[in-house]
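Internal ticket #5521
Category: modeling
Description: The requester needs a full-assembly model to guide mutagenesis choices. All entity lines are attached below as received. Residue total reported by intake: 228.
Assigned to: D.W.
Attached entities:
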Amino acid sequence: GAGVSQSPRYKVTKRGQDVALRCDPISGHVSLYWYRQALGQGPEFLTYFNYEAQQDKSGLPNDRFSAERPEGSISTLTIQRTEQRDSAMYRCASSPQGARPSWEQYFGPGTRLTVT
Amino acid sequence: SQQGEEDPQALSIQEGENATMNCSYKTSINNLQWYRQNSGRGLVHLILIRSNEREKHSGRLRVTLDTSKKSSSLLITASRAADTASYFCATDAKTSYDKVIFGPGTSLSVIP
């Protein structure tokens, strides 16, 4: 079946603009995670959802970052007033079960964000 | 601070040899997972081991977990060039609402 998809795959934006990154999880998956990954590093946790409820957003760097999953399926990560330090690969993952305890995650291809 | 850290950071072996990577973590966990990432692509789940398990096998992969030492190891036997990738351990800390935290990874190169 279809895996996790993310769009756009590449996004170049100017400093100060807002961007919205979309994640379409595997159908029926309960949990959805957002990560940010720098080159040569492991994924850095940002936030996660069980169904439509945002369970933990402690990894969001500051209040310019927000995420939603209003119908418990597709999720959007929004970065307002982008800065160059926001440039990174943003990855989404979904998991078939709720996240207590954790289960295997299925990752999307990521969105490469470049802020100029 | 990171929950899990892999060791070594980089490993280079000849095809056919075994590769062992280690992961240490700091707090009590429910589960520990290993993932593989090929050259900047998406991460692929390899194996999950629960805190009440000590060893688990999947094909050429063997994972051990020592909760008393807060460490895990991933053994890849009879390595192949296609095993060249970065390997990450991921843990869910019981005290952090079970969010999953990844370590910095071990970069494995298997030389044909």
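Resolution: model delivered.
Comment from assignee: The CA atoms of residues 1 and 26 of chain B lie 9 Å apart.
Ticket closed.
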